[in-house]
Amino acid sequence: MKEHSQTPGGRRPRVPGTAVHKRSVRIAGHPTSISLEDAFWDALRELAEGREIKLSELVEEIDANRESQNLSSAIRVYLLETYRQALGAGGSAPRTEAGGGSTH
Length: 104
Hints:
This protein has helices at 38-51, 55-65, 71-88, and strands at residues 20-27, 30-37. The protein is globular, with a radius of gyration of 16 Å. A hairpin with a 2-residue loop joins strand 1 and strand 2. The longest helix has 18 residues, at 71-88. The chain has a domain at 20-88: protein bp1543 (Ribbon-helix-helix fold). It has a two-stranded antiparallel ribbon. 41% of the residues lie in helices and 15% in strands. By secondary structure, it is an alpha+beta fold.
């Protein structure tokens, strides 16, 4: 297993895109705070733009189709499944519906 280098303070260096940021998104007219890493916010934004919908609309779809996990986890799983499907199909910009054929 590869060892990770550490900073002088004994901490591992920060991996780009892993900082967690909390943002407010309106779901059904109510503001909801969602905490995601930058990489997931970027992917969520890209997916919404690719589908030509608002980010809040995509989050509403994910929320409506999620199982019991919290919303942040549901978003991460949804994005992972969406990108896996796109890679498996040889596609580039995933455009699947939140409830379309995936299990989250």
